[in-house]
């Protein structure tokens, strides 16, 4: 019953999930053109969404390169397409932006992941984030699309060749109905769904980017950042969830 009520509310509030925002700039010419090109010839909404999902998923995953452009203030989905590489934040924002540009309601969701090996992170980032005992990924981003009357979680973070190379291939094929989970590790906690990036989370990603780059320039900064449990725990999920739509 709760799910039915939620879906009816979503259907009547679809404009909120089609609207461009600062991070999900679905009206940017680069996003609009990419969405047109990717979905050209698609005859159904499921086909359009599938093309967008596979396009975003198979953008190369490179967290260090992504942190470098993020630290410069390139935070929007259009910046992700301009740079051509992404980590979870950019994969989610570009998926949502392209979906909205194609007329499909979409939003951002977050999860905390148990990923002790962190094998997908660049080695320079892994040693910082993992610290002496390993840490979870507290604010992993992914996209959700509203299609055929329900929300579907579609994690497009790791490109398929990299996932296969590191022994964690995707086991769920896109069909427009079935959730596709992350291959990075089990979900520890759902952190809610949002029409746009909460400021606390976006600011945290930006701080992580700048702290990582500082750590690569200085041994003292490296040790400080590697041991900063507060930094790597991210914003308080209970506070951020007050802004969640689901």
* CATH topology value: C8orf32 fold
Ends apart, CA distance between termini? 15 Å
Strand order of the largest sheet: 3-2-1-4
Cα radius of gyration in angstroms: 17 Å
Q: What structural class results from the helix and strand content?
A: alpha+beta
Task: Give the strand tally.
Answer: 4
Beta content comes to: 5-15%
Report the order of strands and helices: HHHHHHEHEEHEHHHH
Outline the low-pLDDT stretches: 1-10
CATH level 1 class label: Alpha Beta
Mean pLDDT, rounded to whole units? 94
Question: Could you give the topology of this structure?
Answer:
Layout: H1 2-12, H2 29-39, H3 45-57, H4 63-71, H5 77-83, H6 88-101, E1 106-113, H7 123-130, E2 137-147, E3 150-154, H8 160-165, E4 187-194, H9 199-215, H10 219-226, H11 229-233, H12 237-240
Antiparallel strand pairs: 1-2, 1-4, 2-3
What does this structure look like?
The chain is an alpha+beta fold and 246 residues long. The chain has one domain: C8orf32 fold (Roll). The protein has helices at 2-12, 29-39, 45-57, 63-71, 77-83, 88-101, 123-130, 160-165, 199-215, 219-226, 229-233, 237-240; strands at residues 106-113, 137-147, 150-154, 187-194. The chain has a four-stranded antiparallel sheet with strand order 3-2-1-4. Helix 4 (63-71) packs across helix 9, helix 5 packs across helix 6 and helix 9 (199-215) runs antiparallel to helix 10 (219-226). The chain is globular and about 55 Å long. The model is unreliable at 1-10 (pLDDT under 50).
């Amino acid at each position: 019953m709760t799910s039915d009520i939620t879906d009816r509310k979503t259907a009547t509030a679809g404009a909120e999930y089609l609207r461009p925002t600062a991070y999900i700039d679905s009206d940017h010419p680069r996003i609009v053109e990419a969405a047109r090109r990717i979905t050209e010839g698609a005859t159904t909404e499921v086909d359009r969404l599938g093309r967008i999902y596979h396009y975003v998923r198979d953008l190369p995953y490179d967290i260090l390169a992504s942190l470098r452009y993020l630290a410069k203030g390139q935070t929007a989905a259009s910046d992700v397409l301009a740079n051509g590489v992404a980590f979870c934040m950019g994969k989610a924002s570009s998926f949502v932006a392209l979906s909205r540009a194609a007329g499909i309601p979409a939003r951002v969701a977050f999860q905390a992941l148990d990923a002790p090996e962190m094998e997908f992170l660049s080695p320079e980032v892994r040693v910082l984030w993992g610290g002496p005992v390993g840490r979870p990924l507290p604010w992993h981003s992914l996209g959700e699309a509203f299609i055929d009357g329900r929300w579907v979680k579609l994690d497009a973070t790791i490109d398929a060749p990299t996932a296969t190379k590191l022994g964690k291939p995707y086991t769920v094929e896109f069909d427009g109905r079935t959730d596709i989970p992350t291959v990075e590790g089990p979900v520890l906690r759902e952190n809610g769904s949002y029409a746009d990036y909460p400021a606390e989370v976006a600011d945290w990603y930006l701080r992580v980017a700048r702290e990582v780059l500082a750590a690569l320039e200085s041994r003292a900064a490296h040790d400080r950042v590697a041991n900063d449990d507060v930094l790597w725990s991210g914003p308080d999920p209970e506070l951020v969830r007050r802004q969640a739509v689901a």
